[in-house]
Amino acid sequence: MPNLYSAVKRMRVAEKARGRNRSAKSEISSRRRRFFEISAAQNIEKSRGAFSAYCSALDKAAIKGIIPKNTAIRRKRRAAARLSTLKPAAKQG
Predict the structure, then answer these.
(1) Long-range contacts for 79-86 (Cβ within 8 Å, ≥24 apart)?
(2) Is 29 helix (H, G, I), strand (E, B) or coil?
(3) What pLDDT, on a 0 to 100 scale, did the predictor assign at position 6?
């Protein structure tokens, strides 16, 4: 346990930040998983929506400093490449 008041306060602040960071990273993981599941099902329309949500979560985390900017860019680029490989469903008729 810290002896100085400032160290005690710093511990409290760090714990709050840790909680926020874990929450944001969990949100990124959830949106990434959802995007990958939808894209694996070859559903282009839903994949675009999931891709948009995933990119939004990455951008917000990068702006807040939770993940590095280049990490967000790299992950968005890889997700976009995966989205571009999806083929439109053949029209029946």
Answers:
(1) 79/32, 79/35, 79/51, 79/54, 79/55, 80/51, 82/36, 82/39, 83/39, 83/47, 83/48, 83/51, 86/39, 86/42, 86/44, 86/47
(2) helix
(3) 95
pLDDT band at 93 (very low <50, low <70, confident <90, very high): very low
Mind listing the domains of the chain with CATH numbers? 5-83 (1.20.58.110)
Cα separation, 41 vs 10, in Å, equals 47
Are 58 and 67 in contact, with CB atoms under 8 Å apart? yes
Predicted model pTM: 0.84
Tokens of 46: 């839903």
CA angle 87, 92, 93 (to 5 degrees): 150
Share of the chain residues as helix, strand and coil, in percent rounded to the nearest 5? 80, 0, 20
- Give pLDDT tens digits for 14-36: 999 999 999 999 999 999 999 99
